[in-house]
Amino acid sequence: MRVAVPKEIKNNENRVALTPAGAKEFVKKGHSVFVQQAAGEGSGFSDETYQSAGAEILPSIESIYETGEMILKVKEPVGQEYQLIKEDQLLFTYFHFASNEPLTQAMVRSKAICMAYETVERPDKSLPLLVPMSEVAGRMAVQKGANYLEKPLGGRGILLGGVPGTLPAKVLILGGGIVGTQAAWMAAGLGADVIIMDVSLPRMRYLSDVMPKNVKTMMSNEYNIRNLIPSTDLIIGSVLIPGAKAPHLITRDMLQYMLPGTVLVDVAVDQGGCIETCQPTTHENPTYTIDGVLHYCVANMPGAVPYTSTLALTNATLPYALELADNGWENSCIRFPELKSGLNIIKGDVVYQAVAETFDLPYVPVSYYINHH
Hints:
Structural class: alpha/beta
Distance between the termini: 24 Å
Largest sheet: 8 strands, mixed
Strand order of the largest sheet: 3-2-1-4-5-6-14-15
Shape: globular
Helix content: 25-40%
Strand content: 15-25%
Number of domains: 2
Low-confidence stretches: none
Mean pLDDT: 95
CATH class of the largest domain: Alpha Beta
């Protein structure tokens, strides 16, 4: 199969979907790999390292889409890529369709096969291709939050861990999934006073067992959130409903009860955000302030640490990408049922229910294309 890797063109997105080591694995199995010039530079991989791994460097994004049978990306295609995508082409990347109607409509029109990293779901409900980036984003959320709590950057002027004789910062984490768990570890490690909220009692029992003593668990509901926000310094939103829009747990009216200089970090912003006042920002202009409350809502946080992120992401995606190249998407989805849940759009049909419902589009069950033989 001809596997092609474009250079990411989203603002400040420095990750790349395939490392030279990954390219070598494809070549070893007899596939052809095409990488756009400078695609790996932001992550620290030169064109020469791809060439020595057996990949061919192509000069433009047009030549990449023209050549590839499978397109490997990190982020969803942006406007200028829409018309380059061909019918029956397999796109394997993060899509987050539920928060982007123009993208959804464009992919329906393209008649391509869109397989989304974020909805590949194992029988135990784990999301193997979302986990590595969630781990990065969860850890970064605390780094960024700690940074923006500094006065010159617009925060309250409070040190996350405090020092002897002063109280540490209070951190509230909404959602006890991968992002929330990693954020809690980081915030606890820096010495903050952490509360992590979730709606699942089994999950909270687990967190209560594994977390250090400065992390408390609490049932997530509006009453508890309203009680805590007046005394909280940093709030991290990490609620995920796979493939669907995140619910608003922090509403506009709650901001008036927060201390001036409180910092909100919404990691769920690429799925619509769980903080109502959150609008996607970029690494160039990461923050804005509403009612004295600082919002950090960068939609591709892991893009700021591309070397770590690219390695973490490709560790997870490569086995699936090799499987798709070896056996084609139909057979691969039969061999690995979790890939079937990754399918969002096939040849113009929306086959992922949450996406169809979000935009009132006709829904075609994926079994129409893939039989359970």
